[in-house]
């Protein structure tokens, strides 16, 4: 109920709340208006600054074009008179201030005098040649970066001498004006809110607080038991209605109290007249009510019962069980529980009681009391205990029977397995009907292979009235070893002749069966494929088998009574045979490889095992020798050894053999300090011959190269084929004079190149090939195989760069270059992970209507230290190292995400396709196609939005496999374009086989198409070929109107190049797509 203090508080709180709410609302509206006004003024300032700076840019550019640099400076100083311009400066590409509004800044580095200058925006403007305006929220500045050309050179479409006009505009004065207006309006509106709150305070006192006080006093009287109340309020109709309701409530409470007293009398009569024990127990387990029957069950007087609680009367061993059940009921998991338990009676007697306990809760859900019903089950429980003891005795007897016992009831449900059947026969007991027996317990007939049918099972037959005696059958067994048993079964019939079920017993005869089997096996074991020879203790041959005759050529009659020396080859000395005799005497057996002689005098190897047989007195009575011919096995092992260490094509040692030799020589050189060398010979342009003329020609060429290189090898040289077209020569350490060693190695390398000089004749055709050689010496250059191979490979790489057909020794600068390449590798891998890469799009435009039909997707690396890195500097390395795959998949994934966002907008994506360059390594990667499918599914981008650009080299690597992969991708809607066509082995024959959609004319042909007649013929031929194959044609690198006119004349479909647009970031590309694209000189 409300107190006077609470009513006073309510009278003050409501007006205060309204006033605060009004203040917050007004403040929010004013703030929103202030922010909107601020944004509008900033937009006006931005527009004004752009117009002024654009005008200044035009004036200065005209002055620079005319060569009047002083006039350009005067323009800058004139525009700098505006007080809001904090700074106005022209920055050169070297980041020096050429002109500024403050003369002292001239020729200074921009960062030393303009701390707010952003180098990244400066670089972006230089790269994209577009003005950039940014707002510095922290310092309330508007900053502008505008490109200004310092003048064009001859034949330049765009100046390479680009400066940046930098401007700072102060926004502080603008902010102060807006916020002054905000506070002026706020004070006026808040005063109006205060007056409204005072008026509300007077109204609440009269119309609300007084009626509430009257109602509170009436409610207090009802709470004290005075139900004769009458409240009448005239202040308002609502409070009058509330008063009448309170009057009716008091009358209803008085009627309910009378009815409750009558129910209490009836409940007491019911409780005492019950035939089972009943009680009401409080949550603390003390009695609230109980009847006389419960006292009779527990043999207590009511006064004695009240002295103990419910748990004190419960047997100690059952208390914890009931506590756990009570916890579940109290927690609300159960409504009630039933429990058979023991209870302690007067005189230390124990009775068994079945109790059912239910929890009664208050309206709030809190436990109020427990209702308990208790029934005496002592007699029933004693009978159950006696029956359980008899059952335990029966089970003990049954489980100690060695044979397995199984019992089923009259319905065939299994009811009993004894322990022997479960533990020794591997059968776990389950109550199963007959139709499930064989499913869980597979049983076989005596042969151990034929499954038994249900009707054949002894227990099933007994269930149907048949008696079975000693039927042999097989269980699978607990250890997966079959168990052979003799099964017997009988029906179970009671004294009245009624069928109760069936019983079966199983006697294990596995050992007996195995003994019989071993006797049979012993009779035939002698005729195995291994030779067997039995001698007496004096080494006289008693018996041999047929395999002995097949291996040695001697019949049984020829060797019986002879010594095994008849097989002696003379290959072993006396010590060898003494070792055999010693092993037989000490260990009782010997085994090993021995060389013997056949009857035809042929010497052969055999693996022999000799076992000494002893009697019960531990005396040797016989020797049993078994052996097998190792001739074929040793031949196979020799062949395996040859295949493991020698190249199957050339017969030279392979990489594995070379590595072992290299390891050995490096270790040896560390102690001898003799200088050796490792030479790697790589055939120049071998891949071209192999791809164009076929692998058969390539393999024959490799074999002839191996033969020629072998001619200059000496005894201490190792010539190996490392793989592909690489050969490696290892020179063992031969001199302590490093200069002499280098001279000798150089002469050998020259000899190797001379061997490759003469043409190779294959199938009547001459083939010319050269080689590049990389050399590293050891142990001074490198003292381990891994570093030595790396250094020789680095030298080979330098030889390739030097023009091929040359020799290159490893030097320290090569190591530095390798370190730089490793750093680039690590940085590029990190760039892919941290998304330092950004996508650029170069439009592909239709000349007919000026619409952007497609775009080539390009990647740039935004390095945190070096700024934007050109793809020329990292794409080739990515292709070398395999990083091109994760890089290429990142490009496809990022591009599809951007297209997805674009298509999701109301305007949609107007570009038909996006071309992505696919490297050979990426294309042939096993995960390429599944990952492309996954990207398309995740981004919901249709496959026809993608155009994969592949090179001619990729196609020639494996034409059949390439076509198969392309067809799989085309099923997704993806289209294909041949990139840089004409720069490789362009051929109409392979173009016909490829599922292509587009052909791109390489930029190298477009550059000289107006100045070189041969280039014109090539371009015309490529366009004609594409038309013949019904392919679209895209011209790459269009930069002049003359090139465009030539291509339009020859009906080229699409054009791409700086003449239309440079590669653009995503946002600018979208803006560019929204309007008709015109050449730069027409904009």
UniProtKB/TrEMBL annotation:
Q: Which molecular function terms from Gene Ontology are attached?
A: cyclic-guanylate-specific phosphodiesterase activity
**SUPFAM superfamilies, alphabetically?**
EAL domain-like (SSF141868), HAMP domain-like (SSF158472), Nucleotide cyclase (SSF55073), PYP-like sensor domain (PAS domain) (SSF55785)
Q: Can you cite an annotated GO cellular component? A: membrane
InterPro entries per the UniProt record, alphabetical: Biofilm_reg_signaling, EAL_dom, EAL_sf, GGDEF_dom, HAMP_dom, Nucleotide_cyclase, PAC, PAS
> Per the UniProt record, which residue ranges are transmembrane?
12-32, 182-209
Boundaries of each PAC domain copy?
Answer: 337-389, 588-642
Every copy of the EAL domain together lies at 821-1077
Domain of life, per lineage: Bacteria
- One Pfam family of this chain: HAMP
Question: GGDEF domain: which residues?
Answer: 674-812
Matching SMART domains: EAL (SM00052), GGDEF (SM00267), HAMP (SM00304), PAC (SM00086), PAS (SM00091)
Any one GO BP annotation for this protein: signal transduction
Keywords carried by this UniProt record: c-di-GMP, Membrane, Transmembrane, Transmembrane helix
Q: What's its EC?
A: 3.1.4.52
The enzyme's main class, written as a single word, is: hydrolase
Annotated PAS domain residues: 290-333, 517-561
Domain named HAMP is located at 206-258
Name of this protein = cyclic-guanylate-specific phosphodiesterase
């Amino acid at each position: 109920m409300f107190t006077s203090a609470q009513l006073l508080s309510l009278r003050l709180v409501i007006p205060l709340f309204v006033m605060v709410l009004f203040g917050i609302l007004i403040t929010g509206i004013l703030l929103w208006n202030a922010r909107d006004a601020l944004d509008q003024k900033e937009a006006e300032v931005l527009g004004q600054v752009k117009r002024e700076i654009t005008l200044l840019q035009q004036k200065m550019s005209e002055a620079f074009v005319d060569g009047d640099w002083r006039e350009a400076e005067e323009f800058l100083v004139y525009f700098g008179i505006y007080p809001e311009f904090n700074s106005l400066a022209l920055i050169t590409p070297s980041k020096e201030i050429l002109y500024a509004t403050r003369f002292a800044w001239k020729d200074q580095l921009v960062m030393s005098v303009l701390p707010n200058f952003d180098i990244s925006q400066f670089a972006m403007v230089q790269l994209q040649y577009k003005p950039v305006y940014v707002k510095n929220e922290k310092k309330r500045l508007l900053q502008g970066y505008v490109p200004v050309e310092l003048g064009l050179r001859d034949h330049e479409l765009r100046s390479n001498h680009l400066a940046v006009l930098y401007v700072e505009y102060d926004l502080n004065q603008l902010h102060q004006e807006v916020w002054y207006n905000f506070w002026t309006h706020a004070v006026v509106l808040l005063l109006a809110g205060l007056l409204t709150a005072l008026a509300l305070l007077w109204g609440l006192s009269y119309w609300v607080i007084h009626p509430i006080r009257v109602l509170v006093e009436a409610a207090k009287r009802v709470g004290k038991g005075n139900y004769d109340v009458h409240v009448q309020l005239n202040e308002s109709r609502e409070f009058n209605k509330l008063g009448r309701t309170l009057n009716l409530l008091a009358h209803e409470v008085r009627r309910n109290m009378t009815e409750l007293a009558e129910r209490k009398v009836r409940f007491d009569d019911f409780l005492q007249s019950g035939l089972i024990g009943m009680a009401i127990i409080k949550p603390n387990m003390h009695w609230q009510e109980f009847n006389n029957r419960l006292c009779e069950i527990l043999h207590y007087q009511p006064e004695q019962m009240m002295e103990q609680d419910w748990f004190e009367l419960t047997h100690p061993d059952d208390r914890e069980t009931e506590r756990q059940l009570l916890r579940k009921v109290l927690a609300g998991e159960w409504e009630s529980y039933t429990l058979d338990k023991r209870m302690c009676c007067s005189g230390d007697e124990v009775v068994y009681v079945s109790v059912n306990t239910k929890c009664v809760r208050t309206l709030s859900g809190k436990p109020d009391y427990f209702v308990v019903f208790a029934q005496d089950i002592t007699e029933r429980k004693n009978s159950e205990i006696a029956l359980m003891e008899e059952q335990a005795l029966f089970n003990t007897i049954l489980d100690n029977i060695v044979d397995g016992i199984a019992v089923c009831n009259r319905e065939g449900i299994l009811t009993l397995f004894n322990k022997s059947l479960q533990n020794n026969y591997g059968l776990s007991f389950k109550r199963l009907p007959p139709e499930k027996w064989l499913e869980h317990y597979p049983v076989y007939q005596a042969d151990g292979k034929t499954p038994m049918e249900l009707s054949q099972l002894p227990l099933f037959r007994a269930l149907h009235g048949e008696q079975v005696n000693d039927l042999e059958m097989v269980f699978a067994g607990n250890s997966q070893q079959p168990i052979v048993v003799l099964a017997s079964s009988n029906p179970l019939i009671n004294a009245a002749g009624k069928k109760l079920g069936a019983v079966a017993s199983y006697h294990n005869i596995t050992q007996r069966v195995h003994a019989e089997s071993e006797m049979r096996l012993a009779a035939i074991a002698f005729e195995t494929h291994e030779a067997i020879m039995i001698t007496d203790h004096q080494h006289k041959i008693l018996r041999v088998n047929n395999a002995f005759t097949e291996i040695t050529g001697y019949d049984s009659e020829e060797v019986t009574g002879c010594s095994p020396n008849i097989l002696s080859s003379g290959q072993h000395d006396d010590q060898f045979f003494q070792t055999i005799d010693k092993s037989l005497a000490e260990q009782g057996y010997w085994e090993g490889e021995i060389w013997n002689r056949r009857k035809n005098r042929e010497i052969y190897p055999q693996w022999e095992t000799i076992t000494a047989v002893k009697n019960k007195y531990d005396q040797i009575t016989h020797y049993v020798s078994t052996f097998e011919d190792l001739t074929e096995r040793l031949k196979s092992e020799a062949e395996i050894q040859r295949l493991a260490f020698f190249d199957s094509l050339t017969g030279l040692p392979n990489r594995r053999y070379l590595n072992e030799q290299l390891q050995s020589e490096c270790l040896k050189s560390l102690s001898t300090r003799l200088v050796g060398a490792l030479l790697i010979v790589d055939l120049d342009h071998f891949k071209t011959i192999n791809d164009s003329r076929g692998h058969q020609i390539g393999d024959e060429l490799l074999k002839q190269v191996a033969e020629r290189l072998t001619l200059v090898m000496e005894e201490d040289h190792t010539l190996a084929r490392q793989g592909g077209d690489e050969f490696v020569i290892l020179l063992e350490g031969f001199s302590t004079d490093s200069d002499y060693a280098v001279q000798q190695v150089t002469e050998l390398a020259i000899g190797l190149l001379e061997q490759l000089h003469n043409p190779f004749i294959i199938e009547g055709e001459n083939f010319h090939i050269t080689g590049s050689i990389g050399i590293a010496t050891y142990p001074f250059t490198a003292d381990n195989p891994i570093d030595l191979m790396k250094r020789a490979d680095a030298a080979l790489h330098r030889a390739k760069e030097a023009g091929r057909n040359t020799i290159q020794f490893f030097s320290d600068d090569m190591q530095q270059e390798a370190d730089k390449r490793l750093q680039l590798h690590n940085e590029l891998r990190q760039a892919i992970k941290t998304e330092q890469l950004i996508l650029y799009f170069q439009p592909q435009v239709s000349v007919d209507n000026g619409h952007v039909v497609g775009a080539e997707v390009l990647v740039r690396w935004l390095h945190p230290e070096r700024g934007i890195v050109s793809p020329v500097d990292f794409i080739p390395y990515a292709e070398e190292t395999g990083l091109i795959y994760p890089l290429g998949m990142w490009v496809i994934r990022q591009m599809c995400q951007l297209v997805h966002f674009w298509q999701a907008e109301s305007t949609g994506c107007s570009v038909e396709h996006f071309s992505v360059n696919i490297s050979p390594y990426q294309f042939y990667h096993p995960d390429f196609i599944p990952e492309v499918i996954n990207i398309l599914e995740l981004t919901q981008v249709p496959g026809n939005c993608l155009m994969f650009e592949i090179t001619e080299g990729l196609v020639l690597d494996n034409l059949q496999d390439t076509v198969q992969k392309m067809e799989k991708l085309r099923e997704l809607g993806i289209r294909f374009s041949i990139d840089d066509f004409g720069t490789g082995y362009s051929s109409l024959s392979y173009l016909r086989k490829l599922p292509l959609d587009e052909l791109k004319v390489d930029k190298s042909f477009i550059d000289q198409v107006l100045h070189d007649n041969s280039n014109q013929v090539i371009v015309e031929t490529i366009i004609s070929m594409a038309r013949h194959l019904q392919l679209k044609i895209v011209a790459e690198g269009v930069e002049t109107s003359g090139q465009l006119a030539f291509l339009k004349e020859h009906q080229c479909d699409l054009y791409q190049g700086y003449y239309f647009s440079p590669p653009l970031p995503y946002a600018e590309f979208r803006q560019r797509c929204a309007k008709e694209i015109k050449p730069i000189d027409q904009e």
